Amino acid sequence: MTTFIVRRLLQAVAALALVSFLVFAFLWLLPGGPQQAMLSGAASANHLHQLRHDYGLGNPAVLAYLSWLGQVLHGNLGYSYVENASVGSMLAASLPRTLALMITATAIGLAVAIPAGLAQAIRRDAATDRVARALSYVGYGMPSFFLGSILILIFAVRLHWFGAEGPQSAGIAGVLTDWRDLTLPVLTLAVATVAIFARYVRSAAIDSLAHDYVRTARAVGSGRRQVLTKHVLRNSLIPVITLAGLSIPRILAGALVVESLFNIQGMGWRLWQAAQKHDFPVLLGFILVIGAGAVVGSLLADVGYMLADPRVRFRER
Amino acid sequence: MRRGLQRHGISGGQGRPEATRRRRPAALTGGLLALALAAAGCASAGSASPGKPTAGGTATYALPPNTTPNYIFPLSPGVYFSVVNSSNLQLLMYRPLYWFGTANGLPYLNEQLSLAYRPVYRKHTVTIRLKKYQWSNGEKVDAKDVVFWMNMLTAVTKISSSSVNWGGYVPHEFPSNVLSVKAIGAYKVQMKIKGSFSRQWFTDNELSQITPMPLAWDVTTTGKSDCAVRTTNCIAVFKYLDAQSKSTSTWVHSRLWSVVDGPWQLTGLNSQGLLTFSFNKEYSGPVPPAHIATFKELPFTSEEAEYNVLAAGGRNPLDVGYLPTVDAPVPPPGRAVGANPVHGYRLQPLYQWGLSYFPYNFASSDPQLPIISQVYFRHALQLLENQAAIIQGPLHGYGHVSTGPVGSFPRTRYLSPQAGKGDPYPYDPVAARQLLKTHGWTVNPTGVTICRHPGTGPTNCGKGVRAGAQMKFTLYYATGQTWLESALLQLKSNAAQIGIEIDLIPKTFNGVLGVVENGSGCPAGGCPWELADWGVGWSYVPDYLPTGDELFQTGSFGNTGLYSNRVNDNLIKQTLNSSNIKLMWNWQNYLTKQLPVVYQPDAPSALVESINSLHIGTQNPTLAINPEDWYFIR
């Protein structure tokens, strides 16, 4: 197992290096070259001098890359001349609220989807399964801006139960404790999560229920609960773990539509704004973080997969 | 003088880009502007709501979507010359020498709110006498502070004769047209001006740019400096202040920016961009006895988000916000606004003092230049621009017809009686078709209209137009403004009826500006465009007198289409040399017939919603706001 994790970690480091290289290479593809692109039109002699100094942009590409990587590794992701703020500070302002929002929505979504999917599999093609499947289709197909708007109209404008905008407090703790403002955006995001994961769990559980090991477990007298939790659920979670791991970049990238609708200055909204304003330092810095998240997510999925499935551990040996 | 293109944020609803108050042509980026509600006068301004004014309280105000201030120093470089930086930040704390926007909502000099009395001219000399204002640190706002600004302006525009360092800069004008500046007393400044000039123009478009600066700002990284006395060290001071101004996280506790002569001090700014202002108790200007004590500007990620908060109300309602155009109720005939969909609020459209238009490209590299150069063609295309239908349709009944090169709303004395009569080119496709036919074109409603009779005679296509030339044009437009996209689709459809093919090419706001200014993405010969619409036209701020020198004169920096007409230039020159209003009327009546641009409806900058319990007075068409005049009513 240790060998497996070490090997995956090394692969992750290589992948991160590749991500950083690609991000840096994008700079040379941008209109006006890396210097103009990073200054986003706010060029002045001082700015250019500072940029060359910080990123070694006057050097050959490899040296410039290493210089830039050194800055990144020291936490300097660049400076937005559009917003007059460091990319790091913008990330620090956006990432916590996006994480709070997305992780909460994903956790709630999983908490509902896993038992729901399992129940659907057990009662396959029964009325409850059919209703749940129909709801799942609706949840999956409903655009988040539409669902969010409906929820706001009913629960914020009409009933005044919840706020019409997301939490405006700084930091994860402030966001998480503001349940009144957190509820509607989380609900909007969770609906799609439930719809997606429930379908995966249902499908995997149906598959598991047909396997010999389930029949064997039943034959040796294992109880219904034990069969479902120890054999069916565990095997059904394998695709869910994979999907959850691969969702990490999505979590980091935020949900543009929900953030925009609920007045949350999160990662998705920031990225969109940066794209609109040609604010390349922000785009690159955020993409680098999201890329790193993708690598870490993949690593976590692999580890989780191995923990859930002994065959993987066996093969790795 | 600011070329209209300010990027002020646009107001709610219109979804305009964030506005930058640039003097570049087009500049207005976006703007939303702030809803600037402002009461230009004091408590007496505007319609008072019934009830008893109450002192104190906090008023919350919605910033335009996706917009937060990012530059605090009022001598702002071009890239930071925006409505949100100016109206929503700088003007609240640092007052200009002359304030524009009267109590009845007109863009004229407001002597009551100005820091100085009306300037006195004698031949080539102007004398400015300051009132007795003071800075929040106890120092007087005096002649040295005016000279400080002038010295810095002179220095920074010398090292870059463009708007790079001062967004309001117009080449060859202020301060290039000032020979000398000196304090001739503690509260008196005297300037000697080059050449002949109109006094009103100099006041409204040149002196209007001045913002006195406190001596506390006369510093560099190494300590105290002397820019208020001589220009030698002004660049170093500017660089220091510029760097400090960009450091947004240090604004609140800065020893520089806390020295204000305006009614507000910045006391809070969080990572989301929420700004908190507290009333400056040392403010020496006029304020009503009861007014709010705290003013908060709230950022929003989208106009939908803002509208949701506005509509939801609840425990902490938004006091001043805006209504997206898509949610705007169509006004019944004869009314300015329709039934307000937001309960407990008052709806008031806010129109910016500016001009709504989009230019033709008269650059010699444009292959369609021979056609565009024909006045009859421009006349025909203007007849296809159905301004009334755009106002009633995409703008939901909120808008005003543009009648010529001077803004038609608010109605000012600058608008000629002829232009005041309404749209000189009402929608008339039959007349447009006839114009083309009588000039040698074969009109093909199912295809493209073609020149059949080239030549320069009265029934020919005109100079340079070849036989077989086709009526095909590209029109770049800025995405993000729903009404604009609908309006241009309508124009495309109208033009197609007589075989004029318009290829609409969407771009971002900055993308359109890049095209018209031949930015980095354009080929060496220039970008291939015949028409370009960034959607927000031109703003007459801080150059409030709508002379044509910045927008239509040959070679002027706002003249993005490179229009050139000697008669027009001479008429403009006359408006700059004399304050006789009839000269301005002569010029605009002439240029209205020349159609150097396509005039389009003037859309509201914002459909402002203010809660009934808050009195906000009259809105200022310059988009400045005066929350020191606001008060809650109990």
Structural class of chain B: alpha+beta
Gyration radius from CA atoms of chain A, angstroms: 23 Å
The low-pLDDT segments of chain A are none
- Classify the fold: give the CATH topology of the largest domain in chain B: Dipeptide-binding Protein, domain 3
In CATH, what is the class of the largest domain in chain B? Answer: Alpha Beta
**Number of discrete helical segments of chain B:** 13
Strand content of chain A: under 5%
Radius of gyration of chain B: 24 Å
Main sheet characteristics of chain A: 2 strands, antiparallel
Biggest interface between protein chains, with counts per chain?
A: A-B, 37 and 32 residues
The share of residues in helices of chain B is 10-25%
Number of strands of chain A: 2
Read across the widest sheet of chain B, the strand sequence of neighbours is 4-15-14-13
Query: Biggest sheet of chain B, open or closed, and with what strands and sense?
Result: 4 strands, mixed
Extended strand count of chain B: 29
What is the structure about, briefly put?
The complex is a heterodimer of chains A (317) and B (634). Chain A is built from 16 helices and 2 strands.
Notes on the structure:
With 317 residues, chain A is an all-alpha fold. Chain A contains 16 helices and 2 strands. A two-stranded antiparallel ribbon of chain A has the order 1-2. The mean pLDDT of chain A is 85. Chain B is globular, with a radius of gyration of 24 Å. In chain B, helix 2 (143-159) packs across helix 4 and helix 7 (375-384) packs antiparallel against helix 9. In chain B, strand 7 and strand 8 (125-129) form a beta hairpin. Chain B starts with 5 loop residues before the first strand and ends with a strand. In chain B, the strands form 11 sheets. Chain B has a 4-stranded mixed sheet with strand order 4-15-14-13. Chain B has a 4-stranded antiparallel sheet with strand order 7-8-10-9, covered by helices on one side. By secondary structure, chain B is an alpha+beta fold. Chain B has 3 domains: 2-93 and 261-351 and 606-633, 3-Layer(aba) Sandwich (D-Maltodextrin-Binding Protein, domain 2); 116-245, Dipeptide-binding Protein, Domain 1 (Dipeptide-binding Protein, domain 1, Alpha-Beta Complex); 354-438 and 472-599, Dipeptide-binding Protein, domain 3, CATH 3.10.105. The interface between A and B is medium-sized, with 37 and 32 residues.
